[in-house]
Every structure is written in structure tokens, then in C-alpha cells.
Write a structure and sequence with these properties.
WD repeats: 83-125, 393-435, 566-608, 609-651
Helix content: 25-40%
Protein name: Gem-associated protein 5 TPR domain-containing protein
Distance between the termini: 26 Å
Number of strands: 58
InterPro entries: Quinoprotein_ADH-like_sf, TPR_GEMI5, WD40/YVTN_repeat-like_dom_sf, WD40_PAC1, WD40_repeat_CS, WD40_repeat_dom_sf, WD40_rpt
Domain Gem-associated protein 5 TPR: 798-954
Signal peptide: 1-26
């Protein structure tokens, strides 16, 4: 009901409001797209910072909790949610033992939160915990109770709900003599609890027994004042009295809590200095694991032995926390193969199975350990198979203050953090490739050396500034001119690589040469926070100061006085940035919440950008469009501004804390990175803000519509133009070419506008398919997804062989087929070399595919196609080729479901499947890229290209881009009906409508009226509707068209294709006419019929998520409106139930699956007969845009379709409040043009 607004009583004065509502939805939908996320690492400060429950695990960064969930289809863990309600350091997390949807977390601001993971919302919060909770835990036997404790106690018990809701104090657990490190309830014995103290002792309480305070200190400490904190405590799950205790220096003991004795002391090799963490293995009674805190050695133990059974070195850095998953999650069956597995990432290497050395008596426990390391790394380790199922290495664990792309290799992004390190990331794989030595205090700022010097200058809070040689991994220079004062900004001059500027809390901006010779010391009246070299004059630098002023200095003079001082800010100025495209223009961000634009040549502030509600930190000019400026603030948002008139073009809400750094990609000027106090780096595409530019390229407009000078671009209201180096270089290269100019133009501009993430790989594959000389392929091509004909040349089989454990194939040949089948059933990796030896490629491919190890499956299929695996002669090349195609298709779907439509398209192109490649781009809403690729591929992609052009034209059917829409449609052959739709929907005056008719080569308004009447007399309904829509009385089309559709539906053997063309035409009736009160009945009938046929089209397209919503929408309209349509609400319910039963389309919380009845099967078969086949191959399946898998920290929207939180991009409907996911909006608009609110407004989510 909430999704259907009644329009029965609409009147003419109100209609303009409704016409403008369409604009509201477009303004509210964020245009800047989030395209990448670098998650934070796990904090090393507190103990209980990782937890797991069923198919989820979570870990705490300093300010946010990251929740990963198993994707059952691909057996890999994916980031599902980021919980960032805590504003101070998170101190502990505990998963509810009896409800896998709920966990509790505590933080240093005395706050406790109960969080529902599935709904991603707060269930309860306790704002004053009377001290910082050092440890917390659910009360094992209370329905909704959490216990927490700080320092010396007492133990507080918080009943969240029920009659006794509130906080009480444990009667005995208080007045301790030593601080509490952590505590644990006994999982079985009600009310029994143990505390571990910093002095190494334990305190044990249980109802009905004598309390034991400060007992069981390690023997070596007895009689001393030395401290040896308890670092881990876990009750033995098979005993009521035994527990494992780890002390920082005295290792691990098994103690008896009743007899107060030490049962076993476990012996470590001398090299293992201390243990921070341990965990029982629930699937293997008597077994537990520990993690060394100096080096990342995982040790496996059994309580019956005092020495470890096995040791694995997993990482160079030590462990911080460990948690073993209680039980393998319930596995959903896989569609590809009957075999199944758990937790195997598609990227994990299959390594040799474990060999048990001296410990043959003990088999390794089948378990999965969540491992958190001191360097912030987080992973999930499969102990049985001895391999990582998931590993996120080297994440920052604290605020990231700065980020910068490398000037000569923009695939590398450097970040500077409060955690004392600079890290360098590969933005294509989102993995860390270098990290600085650390221990620098806080690193506030960084600056890459110009060119290919491979050095980074860093500014710190207490260690001065430094130059770090990234490749050598060492510090090569330090600058200490500011003494002990913090340095807030460092800037390496890119016009004179010998000069580096720093500014500091001591009030100085110092310019020195890289060998340390001071050139200038510019004294300010207070702390200096920011500085920036002019991009046009190597001797000019600007600074931002605590005294609220901006200063400009000129280095070519000996004076230490500023050339200019700009006043106007009402609070301290932080960063300053010179415009790269407009000489003399600079901006400044201030704690007053504004950004000011200054003109050095006029000595004036020429604009004030107001909108942030907190201090501004990040500032970034676009390097191609001179008026675009981006700012990041402590209000958690990023704003993009049009500095010509001060308009805020878009606001991004995804960060969960203060936004500090912004940086522009050097060769993809509309890709931006941001960093924040939430410890994440996010990648963004600004392309939607200037999308008409790419359409000008597509439609082959003149250069004047694409590239211009800054004066033209800065005219208020003018369409965007490219004015920077990237576009200039592209034009210069194109001017040199004598052939393939159009192809290169489409490729180069497409790459300029696309974010990283596979577009370069995609274009290489397009070149291969179009017959490019192999010798011209770039070196990077061999590292990406390659065309199948190149596999031998690039020797991928060396990689393919790595999927086999290093054992003799001869040995495996002796094994019987029965043994292989047995291993298959056991899901044992030992089967791999056997299958290779016997050439059973299909079995091996199925083995990997069923585990989600799609890269391995691909390598095996490739190896068979190349002849590198001996295949029995009965298996022909054609079979191997088909196998390769199947695996590529599956890998493509994995990329697609991971929000990477471009890489999915690459997988299809690798096996020459242009149809599915285009479909991937369309379903990922990469429309402009799809057109570019389709135009270059030519005939093989024509059908898909024409469909994309039609969708793209719909996107631009809005003021002021109607002409662009017409240009796009004119690129399609047989475009008369498409152009008629555009003209029908055009909302101008009569003379303006006639002009667009003329541009489209269509008859005038009056001529259309005559043609419509002629078509009616001839019984040509389609043309009658078409011409009436373009006439002065478009509403006449409604009456003719709806009567025809109703007549068709009354016939028993109607099909969707017999009614959809007319409804599709009627969907383009002008909104201002459709919503008039006198057409209420006709409008209602049009919306109902469009909704119903839309539901059927959604079934045909497999848009499962919106089918119920479309049926519900249609039923609601029929209940509320007085209409006579040949549909029955009861019949709609029968159809929907039959579809749900026959396709298993039920939500996770609905009733268990029951097979469809015979009547439902018959109803579903009848439904499919009406649908017939989808004319465009490959478009079946849900849309999934880039960023759909990236959780937002802060901007939580609930879908009015499902009532659940929307993951990924959000689309607001025309009331400005109701929201659905962008994916659902795209699918809805493709099958039903009208808004889900029932207003008659057309959706435009493209």
C-alpha cells in the first residue's frame, strides 16, 4: 500500500508539481558512483575484536565493525556490512550465542550497542557504561542479557528487554585488586564466570560455591609484584571445571577451576616468546589452536600432549586474535555439480594437502580459523586443507589522513595514516603492494616525487618529515627543521623536483631542497596546516593558516613576506589548492564549513561554497573540467561543486566518519579516491556528472562539442567541455592517425571516462577479436583475462600446473578410479593430480567449479584446450572448447555478482562470445562503455548495440539533453518508431515540438493528427496510436490503444508480444497530459495493464526480485481504482503463487520449500506459453551495477519493495522519500516505464 499513491482527485494546478517530481528523483539519486572500497584492517589494541556466528564473521577496526558473510554460491566470504555507530575506539565485540543475527559491541566513549546484522540497524544502546568496557559477553543463559566490565569492575549485567530491563551489578564480582583483562562465562554451567587479571591471576565465581579471587597465578610469579597479564581465557567445552589460560610471558596452562591446580603446562619452542590468543576447535574434541604474537605461527595442540601437534607459519607478523567457526555453515547445493564444499575462494591457491610428520596419530582438525594479525591483516584459514580461504592483508587500522595517486603509474595509490605507516595499493586488485617501516607517530600527509623517482615524502606528528624509497623499502632522508612540532602538510614540487615544502604547528612554511638545504622559512602568526605549489608558476606557493587567512608567496624574491593575503574565512584554514586549469585561481577549505574560491589576479574571493555542516578537509579540482571542485568534510560527506555558480551537484554519504583526503587519477580524470577517519579508502567515478560529453564522442560530434578552452567551459550553464592534458593528448594522437580513427577515439575516450577495473583489459580483447597484430598488445595484457588463442603464447599452463600438489603423477596413476570417486565425495584435494594423470578434465573442472574455485577450473580447461593435459582421444577438441566456454561463463557470472560487470564482459570476449559480453555491460548499466564497444565490434554486436542506444536515449530524454537523445536514436537503423516515442514524450510548446519532429524527420503535429485518423479508418491500430501520440491530442492514443489491448487480453491465446508493442508506445505519452483529472480512468487502466505486462516481462527476463512487487502494484491499483480491465485480482495471486512455487522464488525467512502442485505446474506452463522467448540473448538475469556489493557506512535507506536495507546504490522515487535499489529501479524501468508510486510519472534510472 505504501507504494501506491492515489491520484483520483488530481487537478490542473497541481499537475506542474507532479511534472517536476521526475526531476526530484534524479536530483536525489547520487550521481557520483562508488566503484571500489579498501576495507580497514583489524585493530591490534583490544582483545575481543573478532567474532563469528554460523556463516558470518566480524572484526573491529578502530572505529567500525566489518561483517563478512559466506556467499553460498561461490563459497567465498564477502563484505556485507560496515557498522560504524561508535565514534571512539571499539573495545570489544560479542556475537549472541542463541541468535546469529545479533551481536553486541562496546567502545571507549562508554557506549554499548546491540546490532542486528541482517537488518543492519541498532536494536538497543546503552549510553553510559560507567567506565570503558574492556570486555563484554552475552549472558549464556539469559534470553537478552549482556555482561560487561571495565578495569577493576564491577561486572555489570544489562538486561536488554523484558520485565527486568536495565543494568544491575553482579553481587560478588567487584572490588578486585588488579585490573581485569577479560572474562568468560561458562557455556554450560549456569552463572559460572572467570576473570583474567593484569597481575596474571584469575578470579572465579559460581552460584552456590565459594568465590575465588586472584588465584592460580603462574608459579614463577608467586611472592612477586611482577605483572603478567592474562591474554586469553577459554573454558574447555567438554568439562565443567577445566579452562585454558594464556599469560603474556608464562605461556599456556590448563587449570582446574575447582581444585585450583594447574593440570598441564604446554611447552613452546624457545623461539615463541609469547601468545596473545587461543581458541578451541569445536569439531575436534580436545584440540585447540594458538597464535604466536611475534611471528604469525599457528600451532595446533591436543590437551593430552604438552607440545604442539603441528605448526604453520602463516605470516611474518604476529597474531593478535583468533576465533574458530563453531560449525561449517549449512551449504546450499551447487547447480554445476553434485559435489559440494565450504569456504573456498575462487582466488585461493590449491596447495599440497598437509603431511603429518611425527604426529600420525592425530589427524588435523577440520576447522576454519578467523585470524587477525598485528599489522591489521585479517584472514580465514582452512586448517584441514592448509590454505587461506580469504586473506585481507595490511589494511590501515586507524584514520587515513591523505591519499595520492602515483603521477607516472596511476595504478598505484599511496595512503598515509594515524597508524604511523604509508601504504601503497594496486587499485586494480585493491591489495597492498608496499608498506613503510612504521613507528612514525601519526603520518598526516604524503607527496609522491615527480616522474619515475619512486619515492614518497611523508610528514609526521613527531618525527619530522622523511623521504621513503618505495621500491627499496627504506627511509633515505629525514628533515627536522620544525623540531618536535607536528608537520601537517608536505608538498613535493612537480615543476622543480629538487624542492619540497612543509608546514607545521610551529607557524613556519619551510622550502628546502631534497638534500636538506633550506631555501625559505615563511613565518606565520599561528600554525600552518596546508600548502600547495602553483601548477602554472614553479615559484609560487599558497598556505592555509590557523589565523583564518590564505597567503601566497613568491619564491623568486628574497622577501619572506607574502605577495597576497586573502581574508574572509571565519575559522582556521586547512588545505589550499591551486586550479590546474585556470591560472591564478585557488580554493581553500576551512573549519567554518565553507570552501572559498580566490582569484589571485583580482585580489578577491569570487565564490563561497556553503553546504558542509562541519570543518572542510579534502579539496580536489578536476583536471579536465575547470569548474568541477570536490570537497570532503568532518560531516562525513563528499560534495561536488559547480564553482561557476556555487551549485552543489552531488553529495556522497558513504563514508562513516570525517573525510580527509581526495585525489584525482592522473590518466582517468573522472576517477577519484577518498580517505577517512573510518579507515577506508573509496574509489569513485564522477563520469555521470559529465556524461553528455561521452555521448558527444559516441555520436561523432565535432571537436567543439568535446574539447574547448577554459573561458568557454566557465560560461555559467554551458555544457561541460574537456580542457585538460589527458583530452589534449588524445586529440593530438588521433590527429596523427590515418586509419582506425573512430575506433581509437572511442577506445581512448572510453578509457578516459571509465574507472579502473577492467576497461583496459576489455579493449585489448576487443582489439584481438577485431584482428589486431599480437605484437601490438601491451605487456599488461598477459596479466589479465586473455583470449583463448593466446593461452599457449603466454604459457598460462605454468600457472595451471600450480593447481596440482607437488607429488609424483606416476604414483597417482597406480590409484584406482574408485579411489578418485571416493576422494571426490570427501571433497578432498588429493583428487587433483589423479584427474590430471588420467586426463579426466571434466571431472576436475566440476570439482573446482563446485567449490567456487573458478580460476583453477579455467586453468584446467585452458590446459586441455592447449594440449598440455593428456586427454583421452575420445575427448575431442570441440568438447574441450565447450568446457572452456562453460567455465568462462561461470567465471563471468562470478565477476558479475561481485559488481564487476566489465571483467565479466572480458571473460565472455575471451571465448568470442560478444553477445554475452554486451549483455554483461548492459546488465551492469555500463551503457556508454557498451555502446563504444558495440560500435567497434560491429556486426556481431549490432542487436545489443541498438538496444543500448535506445536505453541511453531514454536516459537523455530530459531537459536540456533532448537533442542528444535524438542523436543516439539516429545511430540506429529502422529508427522511425523510436524517434516517434521521443517526439511523443517531448514536453515543449507546439513550435518546439514541431522543431524536434523536423530534426527527427517526422511529420508535424497537424500532419500526425491526419495520419492517425487515416490509420484508424484503415484499422491500423499501431500507427493510429503512434501518430495520435505525436498529434495535438495525444490522449486520443490512450483510448484507441487501451481498447485494443483489452480486446487482445480477452482472447484466450494472447501473448505478451501481441500486446506489449502498443503498451510500450503508450508509455511515452506526455506526463502533463497523462495526469490530467479527466483522464483518470484511462490513466489507471494504462498503469494497471503496464504493471501486469511488466510483471510477465520481468518473469521472462528473470528479474525475480521485482516480480512480486509488480504483481502487488497491479493488484493495489485494481483495488483502488474504478476500472474495467480483463484481469482478476484472484487470478494475479494464482499466477504469482504458481511462479514462486515453480521457480523456488521465496525469501530467506519464508516457509520451507514445498513442491508445486499439479495445478501450479499447469498454471506456470500456461504463463510461459504467453511469454515466449526473450528476443535479446543474454539479458536474462538481474541487473547488478558496479558498487552494488559495496556497503555504505552511513546513509541507510530501506527499500519500499522489501522493507530491507538497500545494499549499494539507491534510487529515490518522485516523492523524494520512497527508495528502492538502483538495480531494482533499472529492472523495473526496462519492463514497466511508470513509477512504482502509481503517479503516472516515467522512471529514468539509467
Amino acid at each position: 500500500d505504501s507504494c501506491t499513491t492515489s491520484l483520483e482527485s488530481i487537478s490542473l494546478p497541481v499537475f506542474w508539481c507532479l511534472c517536476s517530481l521526475l526531476c526530484v528523483s534524479q536530483i536525489k539519486m547520487s550521481q557520483v558512483k562508488q566503484v571500489g572500497l579498501l576495507a580497514a584492517g583489524c585493530q591490534p589494541w583490544n582483545k575481543d575484536v573478532c567474532a563469528a556466528s554460523e556463516d558470518r564473521f566480524a572484526y573491529c577496526a578502530t572505529l567500525a565493525i566489518y561483517v563478512y558473510q559466506l556467499d553460498h554460491r561461490y563459497n567465498e566470504f564477502k563484505l556485507r556490512a560496515i557498522m560504524s555507530e561508535h565514534k571512539k575506539t571499539i573495545t570489544a565485540i560479542s556475537w549472541c550465542p542463541h541468535n546469529p543475527e545479533v551481536f553486541a559491541s562496546a567502545s571507549a566513549d562508554n557506549l554499548l550497542i546491540i546490532w542486528n546484522v541482517a537488518e543492519q540497524k541498532i536494536v538497543a544502546r546503552l549510553d553510559n557504561t560507567k567506565g570503558i568496557p574492556a570486555s563484554l559477553s552475552w549472558c549464556w543463559n539469559a534470553g537478552d542479557g549482556v555482561a560487561f566490565v571495565s578495569h577493576r569492575g564491577p561486572l555489570y549485567l544489562w538486561a536488554i528487554s523484558g520485565l527486568d530491563a536495565g543494568v544491575t551489578i553482579h553481587k560478588e564480582a567487584h572490588s578486585f585488586l588488579s585490573d581485569i583483562c577479560l572474562f568468560r562465562w561458562h557455556p554450560v554451567k549456569k552463572g559460572k564466570v572467570v576473570f583474567g587479571h593484569t597481575d596474571g591471576s584469575l578470579s572465579i565465581f559460581q552460584p552456590g560455591s565459594k568465590n575465588q579471587k586472584h588465584v592460580l597465578r603462574p608459579e614463577s610469579l608467586e611472592g612477586t609484584d611482577e605483572e603478567d597479564p592474562v591474554t586469553a581465557l577459554e573454558w574447555d567445552p567438554l568439562s565443567t571445571d577445566y579452562l585454558l589460560v594464556a599469560n603474556q610471558h608464562n605461556g599456556i596452562r590448563m587449570v582446574d577451576s575447582e581444585g585450583l591446580t594447574c593440570v598441564t603446562t604446554f611447552s613452546f619452542p624457545s623461539s615463541a616468546a609469547s601468545v596473545q590468543c587461543l581458541a578451541w576447535v569445536p569439531s575436534a574434541p580436545g584440540m585447540f589452536i594458538t597464535g604466536d604474537s611475534q611471528v604469525g605461527v599457528l600451532r595446533i595442540w591436543n590437551v593430552s600432549r604438552s607440545t604442539p601437534l603441528d605448526n604453520f607459519k602463516l605470516k611474518k607478523t604476529g597474531f593478535h586474535a583468533l576465533h574458530v567457526l563453531n560449525s561449517p555453515p549449512a551449504k546450499k547445493c551447487n547447480s554445476i555439480s553434485p559435489t559440494k564444499s565450504h569456504y573456498t575462494s575462487s582466488t585461493s591457491e590449491a596447495v599440497p594437502p598437509p603431511t603429518l610428520s611425527q604426529n600420525q596419530a592425530f589427524s588435523l582438525p577440520p576447522g576454519h580459523a578467523v585470524c587477525c594479525f598485528m599489522d591489521g591483516g585479517v584472514g580465514l584459514y582452512d586448517m584441514g586443507a592448509k590454505k587461506w580461504d580469504f586473506l585481507r592483508d595490511l589494511g590501515h587500522v586507524e584514520t587515513i589522513f591523505d591519499c595520492k595517486f602515483k603521477p607516472d603509474d596511476p595504478n598505484l595509490l599511496a595512503t598515509a595514516s594515524f597508524d604511523g605507516t604509508i601504504k601503497v595499493w594496486d587499485i586494480n586488485t585493491l591489495t597492498a603492494v608496499y608498506t613503510s617501516p612504521g613507528n612514525e607517530g601519526v603520518v598526516y600527509s604524503l607527496s609522491w616525487a615527480p616522474g619515475d623517482l619512486n619515492c614518497i615524502a611523508g610528514a609526521t606528528s613527531r618525527n619530522g618529515a622523511f623521504i621513503w624509497d618505495v621500491k627499496k623499502g627504506k627511509m633515505i632522508t629525514r628533515f627536522n627543521e620544525h623540531g618536535n612540532h607536528g608537520i601537517f602538510c608536505i608538498a613535493w614540487s612537480h615543476k622543480d623536483s629538487k624542492r619540497i615544502a612543509t608546514c607545521s604547528g610551529d607557524g613556519f612554511c619551510i622550502i628546502r631542497t631534497i638534500d636538506g638545504r633550506v631555501l625559505h622559512k615563511y613565518k606565520h602568526p599561528a600554525a600552518v596546516f596546508g600548502c600547495d605549489w602553483s601548477q602554472n608558476n614553479k615559484d609560487m606557493i599558497a598556505t592555509g593558516c590557523e589565523d583564518k587567512n590564505v597567503r601566497v608567496y613568491y619564491l623568486a624574491t628574497s622577501s619572506d613576506q607574502p605577495l597576497k593575503v586573502f581574508t574572509g574565512h571565519l575559522a582556521k584554514v586547512f588545505h589550499v589548492r591551486w586550479s590546474p586549469l585556470r591560472e591564478g585561481i585557488l580554493c581553500s577549505g576551512s573549519d567554518d564549513g565553507t570552501v572559498r574560491i580566490w582569484d589571485y589576479t583580482q585580489d578577491a574571493c569570487i565564490n563561497v561554497l556553503s553546504g558542509h555542516t562541519a570543518p572542510v578537509r579534502g579539496l580536489m579540482w578536476n583536471t579536465e573540467v575547470p569548474y568541477l571542485l570536490t570537497s570532503g568534510s568532518w560531516d562525513y560527506t563528499i560534495k561536488v561543486w559547480d564553482t561557476r555558480d556555487g551549485t552543489c551537484l552531488d553529495t556522497c554519504y558513504d563514508h562513516g566518519a570525517d573525510v580527509y583526503g581526495l585525489t584525482c587519477h592522473p590518466s582517468r580524470p573522472f576517477t577519484m579516491a577518498s580517505c577517512s577517519r573510518d579507515s577506508t579508502v573509496r574509489l569513485w567515478s564522477l563520469t555521470p556528472l559529465i556524461a553528455p560529453l561521452l555521448v558527444n564522442v559516441l555520436a561523432d560530434h565535432s571537436w567543439d562539442d568535446i574539447i574547448g578552452n577554459t573561458d568557454r567551459a566557465m560560461v555559467p550553464g554551458a555544457t561541460p567541455l574537456l580542457c585538460g592534458k589527458v583530452s589534449r593528448d588524445i586529440k593530438q594522437e588521433l590527429d596523427k592517425l590515418s586509419s582506425e580513427v573512430r575506433v581509437k577515439k572511442l577506445r581512448w575516450f572510453s578509457e578516459c571516462f571509465s574507472p579502473p577495473g577492467g576497461s583496459h583489459n576489455l579493449w585489448d580483447l576487443v582489439s584481438v577479436i577485431n584482428g589486431q597484430d599480437d605484437s601490438l598488445l601491451p605487456q599488461s595484457y598477459g596479466k589479465g583475462i586473455m583470449h583463448m588463442k593466446h593461452l599457449v603464447r603466454f604459457k598460462t599452463w605454468d600457472k595451471a600446473l600450480s593447481v596440482a600438489p607437488g607429488v609424483s603423477i606416476k604414483y597417482w596413476k597406480k590409484l584406482m578410479q574408485r579411489r578418485a570417486d571416493q576422494l571426490m565425495q570427501e571433497e578432498n584435494h588429493d583428487v587433483i593430480p589423479y584427474c590430471i594423470a588420467t586426463g579426466d578434465v571434466r571431472k576436475l573442472v566440476n570439482f573446482f567449479t563446485a567449490r567456487g574455485q573458478l580460476n583453477e577450473a579455467l586453468l584446467v580447461a585452458q590446459g586441455a584446450c592447449e594440449g598440455n593435459i593428456h586427454v583421452p582421444q575420445t575427448a575431442c577438441n570441440l568438447c574441450c572448447s565447450r568446457l572452456l566456454q562453460c567455465v568462462c561463463k561461470e567465471l563471468a557470472e562470478w565477476y558479475f555478482q561481485d559488481g564487476r560487470a566489465v571483467l565479466a564482459a572480458c571473460c565472455h570476449l575471451a571465448v568470442d562470445n560478444t553477445e554475452l559480453a554486451m549483455a554483461s555491460l548492459i546488465r551492469g548499466n555500463e551503457l556508454e562503455l557498451a555502446v563504444c564497444v558495440g560500435l567497434v565490434l560491429g556486426e556481431s554486436a549490432n542487436q545489443a548495440t541498438h538496444y543500448v542506444l535506445e536505453l541511453l536515449a531514454r536516459k537523455y530524454m530530459t531537459t536540456p539533453t533532448w537533442d542528444l537523445a535524438a542523436d543516439l536514436l539516429q545511430m540506429i537503423p529502422d529508427n522511425e518508431v523510436l524517434l516517434a516515442k521521443l517526439c511523443a514524450f517531448y514536453p515543449g510548446s507546439s513550435s518546439e515540438i514541431d522543431q524536434i519532429h523536423e530534426k527527427c524527420g517526422l511529420p508535424s503535429l497537424e500532419e500526425c493528427q491526419a495520419l492517425a485518423e487515416s490509420a484508424v479508418s484503415e484499422g491500423d491500430i499501431f500507427n493510429a496510436v503512434k501518430y495520435y501520440l505525436m498529434s495535438p491530442e495525444p490522449e486520443a492514443a490512450l483510448l484507441v490503444g487501451i481498447a485494443h489491448v483489452k480486446e487482445q487480453l480477452s482472447d484466450s491465446d494472447w501473448t505478451v508480444d501481441s500486446v506489449h508493442p502498443i503498451l510500450d508506445l503508450l508509455g511515452y505519452i506526455r506526463t502533463d497530459r497523462l495526469i490530467l483529472a479527466k483522464f483518470t480512468e484511462a490513466r489507471s487502466e494504462l498503469l494497471i495493464l503496464s504493471g501486469y505486462i511488466g510483471a510477465l516481462l520481468a518473469i521472462r527476463r528473470q528479474y525475480s526480485s521485482i516480480v512480486p512487487a509488480l504483481y502487488e502494484y497491479t493488484s493495489q491499483l485494481m483495488k483502488r481504482r474504478e476500472v474495467s480491465v480483463p484481469l482478476q485480482i484472484e487470478q494475479l495471486s494464482v499466477e504469482l503463487e504458481a511462479w514462486m512455487a515453480c521457480t523456488h522464488s521465496r525469501g530467506p525467512d519464508e516457509a520451507p520449500y514445498t513442491p508445486p502442485s499439479e495445478a501450479q505446474k499447469a498454471e506456470h506452463a500456461h504463463l510461459l506459453d504467453r511469454l515466449q522467448e526473450e528476443p535479446l540473448r543474454g539479458l536474462e538475469g538481474p541487473d547488478y551495477v558496479t558498487g552494488s556489493n559495496l556497503p555504505s557506512h552511513s546513509d541507510v535507506q530501506v527499500s519500499c519493495f522489501t522493507g530491507l536495507r538497500i545494499q549499494g546504490p539507491v534510487f529515490f522515487l518522485e516523492d523524494g522519500k520512497s527508495a528502492i535499489s538502483l538495480n531494482d529501479a533499472l529492472m523495473w524501468a526496462k519492463v514497466n516505464p511508470f513509477s512504482p508510486l502509481g503517479t503516472g510519472v516515467r522512471l529514468n534510472p539509467f
